[in-house]
Design a protein that fits this description.
Length: 498
């Protein structure tokens, strides 16, 4: 291998260097049209660079490059593909600080609490899947003594991945790592708000992967995402984002009769029983609500059901804990909470807060202090809000806000908490906090969600099967089954021995 890229710790410089480019067939290239669009720093509102404006012609070029590279890639042994993917992990670890700073700049997520963490775990997905090449095995089927019958796992071909802006590198890794190890080539479309950290990740990985195996485009959903989904040579779509966009993608995929994986929204309940360790539950509420990510998480614990005996103490301690957090410049090491990603999302959150203010009886506790200083005056900062006395039918308690706003409800009976928790169109994550084993186990079985935890609220990690029920999505990610079931076809091969 010739000269390897070296880390660039100045994210402003890196954003400029990566401006205006897709990565297709191993090369950084301009859009076919030459067009670009601005990418801004949510903490200041200032433009930090331009993203290439991807359209159908760019999709065609990227899919063609992927298609051309895929057969040879699939021709490598599974172990060899895994080895190359694991080698990417080593390089990404060397670039972790650089990637953390870049994703902090473009997303507004605080470096210390979120962005550096994301960059740190990014490599882990490639380590995990890199070791799973040998698991791409089939079965032997004892259907007849005269026949040798086996099943084979074969790659789908070209996989299209469409990703959001909240944890862009990590969510991308959970899609492309299993797809690549399974022998597919991939074309990723990044979120318009956050193209650079993913593009840099792709550039780093292209030092190891054969050209065309991993391509990346930036662009808007309808202009660049839709033609990728519709492209006749794309055999699978994996998507994380809104329910609304998930439905559009599923419709196109239905027309093409191709499989999809959809990771959509959530309104995840957290149930705190009267016997819970309250300090632990409060810490879990802060972590679970992802206040350090401005609440921009599909698993955010945005509905908290707290037993009436401990409700007031819980709210008081939660407020005190969030009050102690620092809202500020994402690149400042002192900052806990950064900025909301875009003016659209900012306005969406404000809309919910207005509804809350107009709801009779509802209380809204605003926590922590807004950042000072003129530098951040145009930043998209929102104080975390804890809502209490929320009517059961309030949109704040039922809809995904994707901002730092949580609703705390009071309950008396366990059955009422179960019923309220399951009364949702979503089913992504849930948690229960109790010292009682029987309560914990009952809740674990009965909560309608794909990812249920007892006395903790951790984020998804490689190896843990992750995905939603109901409107939260279709399919599972992050696990072995994600690679086998979602990125391969199963072929039955019957050999007549007579
Ligand atoms: P979105 O679902 O519109 O965007 C996600 C990705 O889909 C982006 O890359 C976007 O360009 C792409 N996209 C949009 N329209 C498309 C189309 N017609 N065809 C193909 N691709 C398309 O989400 P958005 O607008 O960023 O956020 C809206 C809401 O979605 C948020 O408030 C939140 O509730 C939810 N969301 C959920 C996420 C999750 O992690 N499950 C992540 C981001 C947003
Ligand atoms: Mg959208």
């Amino acid at each position: 291998m010739t000269d390897r890229l070296s880390p660039t710790l100045d994210p402003f410089q890196l954003a400029e260097e990566l401006s205006g480019k897709h990565l297709i067939g191993g090369n950084l290239v301009l859009s076919a049209s030459g067009r670009t669009f601005d990418v801004t720093n949510p903490a200041t509102g200032k433009v930090i660079g331009q993203a290439a404006y991807g359209e159908a012609a760019d999709v065609d070029a990227a899919v063609a490059a992927a298609k051309a590279a895929q057969a040879e890639w699939a021709g490598l042994s599974a172990r060899q593909r895994g080895k190359l993917v694991a080698e990417c992990a080593t390089l990404l670890t060397q670039h972790a600080e650089e990637l953390g700073r870049l994703v902090a700049l473009e997303t507004g997520k605080a470096l210390r609490t979120e962005s550096r963490v994301e960059a740190g775990v990014l490599a882990d997905a490639f380590v995990f899947y890199g070791g799973l090449g040998s698991e791409l095995k089939g079965e032997s089927v004892p259907h007849s003594p005269d026949m040798m019958t086996v099943t084979l796992r074969e790659p789908i071909g070209v996989v299209g991945a469409i990703i959001p802006w909240n944890v862009p590198m990590m969510l991308m890794a959970l899609k492309i790592a299993p797809a690549l190890v399974a022998g597919n080539a991939v074309v990723v479309k990044t979120a318009e708000e956050a193209p650079f950290a993913c593009l840099r990740t792709c550039q780093i990985m292209n030092q190891v992967l054969p050209p065309g195996v991993f391509n990346i485009l930036s662009g808007y959903g309808p202009e660049c995402g839709a033609p990728l989904v519709a492209h006749p040579d794309v055999g699978k779509i994996t998507f994380t984002g809104s329910v609304e966009t998930g439905r559009i993608i599923y419709q196109t995929a239905a027309h093409k009769l191709i499989p999809v994986t959809l990771e959509l929204g959530g309104k995840s309940p957290m149930i705190v029983m009267g016997d819970a360790d309250l300090d632990r539950a409060v810490a879990g509420a802060v972590a679970g609500m992802r206040f350090t990510r401005q609440g921009q998480s599909c698993t955010a614990a945005s509905r908290m059901y707290v037993h009436e005996d401990v409700h007031d103490a819980f709210v008081e301690r939660l407020k005190a804990k969030v009050d102690a957090m620092t809202i500020g410049d994402p690149l400042d090491e002192a900052t806990d909470i950064g900025a909301i990603i875009s003016p659209q999302q900012f306005e969406r959150v404000q809309g919910y807060l207005r509804i809350g203010q107009e709801t009779p009886g509802m209380k809204m506790l605003r926590c922590a202090s807004m950042p000072a200083g003129t530098e951040l005056a145009d930043g998209l900062f929102v104080q975390p809000v804890i809502c209490t006395d929320v009517p059961a039918d309030s949109p704040l308690g039922r809809e995904e806000i994707f901002g730092p706003v949580t609703c705390v409800f009071k309950f008396r009976e366990f059955e009422d908490a179960m019923a309220a928790a399951n009364d949702s169109e979503y089913g992504l994550a849930a948690s229960i906090w109790t010292r009682d084993l029987s309560t914990a186990m009952q809740a674990g079985k009965r909560l309608e969600a794909g990812f249920v935890q007892v006395n903790q609220n951790i984020v998804v990690l490689p190896g843990l099967s992750y995905g939603g029920t109901k409107h939260s999505g279709i399919g599972r990610e992050a696990s072995l089954e994600a690679m086998l079931d979602h990125f391969t076809h199963k072929k039955t091969l019957i050999i007549n021995m007579t």
